[in-house]
Amino acid sequence: MPPKALFFLLISLFFGSSLLAETRAYLLEVYDHISKSQWSITTGFAPDTYINSHGGGNRLSVMIKATWMCYGDTANFQPACPMPKAREPKFQAGDLVEVLLEKHITQSWQGRVELSLYREDLKSNVYGVRFGEKRQLYNRYYEFNLKLKQAVTIIKPPGQENLPENPAAEGALPSAIGTPAP
């Protein structure tokens, strides 16, 4: 056995137990053109692989809403890890924000925050924003590229004080979101 191969074998045996795998997870918004339905799914499939393995490009369209890294063992068909929560977020789901990017096509556009997550690889919170007045366009932005225009307040009926603070992120019904704050 060549010395380089032996050295590599010994190093990999010594450090093999401390190595961790990583995979990328995706939150996809899927549109089925035949059944005219749409849904969101968290998966380890890249968008093109998801389309090809679930009906093909003539049937499905996919948009990436968020992506993040999963660390550790993902073998044996384990589901993708959950989306990481934002760290000290400036914006909540439902907030009306304005885009501050200069010389960008979305400069000064206003949209609603749909989701927020912390990207460890970017060391930043990332927000998914939907622009209802712009044909439901969706895009992702860093926290410092957005400015709060109008916060959404949560109305909690008497006796239901245990509603989540961020109902859109918790999967609660949209009726739990109250009226915009002045």
From TrEMBL:
Where are the residues of the annotated region Disordered? 159-182
Instruction: Determine the domain of life of the protein's source.
Output: Bacteria
Q: List the protein's name.
A: Uncharacterized protein
Which species does this protein come from? SAR324 cluster bacterium
